[in-house]
């Protein structure tokens, strides 16, 4: 498949919460195969933008397109099979389920779920998915914890598991909400490496992040939000050096 | 004789466990109690008994009973849960209680209010295991109840849908964000609970030799005692609590008095509620503990 | 009530005038034209609805036969049937209605003890003779004398002799008793069994209890099976007794089942619930649908032919006899039709019923005791081929 110029497009999106404009006429285009950063001070509308993209929140105006298809009115449940998957700022795992089962649930939309799937003896497809889930645990360094309940994992591993689970759905676009928050320095290094790796595999990533170091290292393109509006955008080297950004966000 | 009485108790508990499992599945998926489940079991038992009377083999009657249970549970879901707003958690209690009354009334209308005799199975079989004897019907009951319970465990543990059910039970909004079709998972959960109730209904009928249109609410009440004792939503807790209550009831009748039977169970459940309000097996007692 | 009573007196006087207009003898059985009304109290709902239907059929059949044979001295007999719908309030208004508006000579029904308790007491207060074709609870007529009667003999009086003889005949030495603890009638049955076993020297080796509506009898039967008694006395309602029988046989209990007359009268429910397990059950009985009594036999045979029933049910035969007892007394005492001097007529019927000795009808021999209950034949019945039949060899 030939790379599309714009895989995910947000056009003129507005979202108000009790009269306050969280997002005001936002335009944003994510190129396929790139890592697109969204930065801005607290309350700038970053997470709202991610919620609108993933379908968790429906915009008051504007449209969202994935690979040219209008997905504005689709529920998150229906966006996942199209290739749009996200993680959360405050981790949301199935605490009572095992690490492996969390990943298996991430695969749910890819599993064939006819009557045959009710029978407990796995089909070849189910076996393949399980093998893939085990491989994902290796990749995300979670294999030793595969049978542990997710809630028992330390914070850093929970973040890794959340990403592993998101990847299990084989997304075309991965939406990450503050993946570096609460991480140690080592954890951040590992995260940067992992994002590079995923980008190398051709994955498109939208990342909302506070850590400018991470943004500078992984992003191809950065959008800066302030008060629900696009302040500026461009390559990180240019944008992060700009005066406007310093004033609005970093200068304080 | 004690051995035989204990076996009687386990047998009784095994049928309680199936209904309680049905309740707990729905509790897990929706945090709601389906008060029509006892009547679902009763209708399934009546259907099974009618088919057995016509001379069909027990296997056919059993399959028909679990199919009836599954189908009724779906109807109850649509009628009493699907369109009830999340803002009124008590509304589904009343709507499902109402469906239970409707089911009883329909059975009375169609089959009359008399209790219906349930024919015996494997009448010739009588195993003497030393400590206790097992009749053919008891063998069928204990084997099928065990198979269904183990089957449920394996299903929840091993299948794509089982994992999804446990996911919904863990965090329904989250599951939707991962693309799991929550409504279908809930529908499946109701179907499963109905299948369990249907099996419980006919097996109970076998144990009691009869089924009455007014058995439904009694089953519901017993199942409530079981899940309160075992811990709301806990699968393992439900099974253990069902066996405990079955044995306790049997021994009370055997060595004390029939009129004390329910009283002792209520007192036990009351004490557990005071000392351990989350039940013997609370919510976070392990992966499979909760659905 | 007062107005109704006065109206009744006026009406009765008017009727008496017309009746006497022909100048016949007072109270005379003038042939033709007149009507004797008999009230029937049924109940189309409640646990005894089926028994009431049977009773109504029996009463209607009696009237049909009477009228075909020329009625009473040429006057027709007519039933006035009211439906109490198993409701005490309805009964309390329907009985006065029968007494005053319908001018009935006597009332037949209800068959159940609870209904009779109310209906019979009300009729007694209004001084209308009332005969229940079935109420058998001890003390059911306590507030209904001297006008209240029942054709059924209370369980204890009827069953004791029959069961004691059966126990001696069959040489039983050990017994167990299973009792429904939540029911006054079945507890009384258990006391009766205890007394019978004590009197006959049978050792009670095990007692088990259950509560009405209990479903599993596994535990109780296991306890009983451990004691391995010769007989198991069923102090239980017929449905429960049937399921006890099945559980007992499935646990290979070999004991013979024993029941009072109540079990026999609920025989079809017992056999329906218990199936083959009930075969050989022995119970007391007070009515034989195939009696060989020279008066009863032809009546039963004719009823079988006319109604197409192989076995004439108890309530049918009792209702038939109740109507005929009243008709016989009307004829004997030469009472005038159409409610003439109705209060006197009712009193005479009441006195006649109380004085009646060994009335023989479709249900064999009946004599009313001091308390208005009947003394009935004491028969042994046994379940054979799926129903209770009278064991004539044992009587």
UniProtKB/TrEMBL annotation, chain A:
One of its GO terms (molecular function) is ATP binding. Keywords: ATP-binding, Nucleotide-binding, Transport. InterPro entries: AAA+_ATPase (IPR003593), ABC_AA/LPS_Transport (IPR051120), ABC_transporter-like_ATP-bd (IPR003439), P-loop_NTPase (IPR027417). Residues 8-252 form the ABC transporter domain. SMART domains: AAA (SM00382). One of its GO terms (cellular component) is plasma membrane. SUPFAM superfamilies: P-loop containing nucleoside triphosphate hydrolases (SSF52540). This is Amino acid/amide ABC transporter ATP-binding protein 1, HAAT family. It comes from Pseudonocardia thermophila. The lineage of its organism: Bacteria, Bacillati, Actinomycetota, Actinomycetes, Pseudonocardiales.
TrEMBL record, chain B:
It is found in: Cell membrane. The keyword GTP-binding does not apply. It holds the Pfam family BPD_transp_2. The chain crosses the membrane at residues 6-26, 58-79, 91-111, 131-156, 185-209, 221-246, 253-275. The keyword Isomerase does not apply. Keywords: Amino-acid transport, Cell membrane, Membrane, Transmembrane, Transmembrane helix, Transport. PANTHER family: AMINO ACID ABC TRANSPORTER PERMEASE PROTEIN, BRANCHED-CHAIN AMINO ACID TRANSPORT SYSTEM PERMEASE PROTEIN LIVH. This is Amino acid/amide ABC transporter membrane protein 1, HAAT family. It comes from Pseudonocardia thermophila.
TrEMBL record, chain C:
Residues 1-21 form the signal peptide. One of its GO terms (biological process) is amino acid transport. PROSITE patterns: PROKAR_LIPOPROTEIN. Keywords: Amino-acid transport, Signal, Transport. Transmembrane segments: none annotated. InterPro entries: BCAA_transport, Leu-bd, Leu_Ile_Val-bd, Peripla_BP_I. Residues 36-377 form the Leucine-binding protein domain. Belongs to the leucine-binding protein family. This is Amino acid/amide ABC transporter substrate-binding protein, HAAT family. It comes from Pseudonocardia thermophila. The lineage of its organism: Bacteria, Bacillati, Actinomycetota, Actinomycetes, Pseudonocardiales.
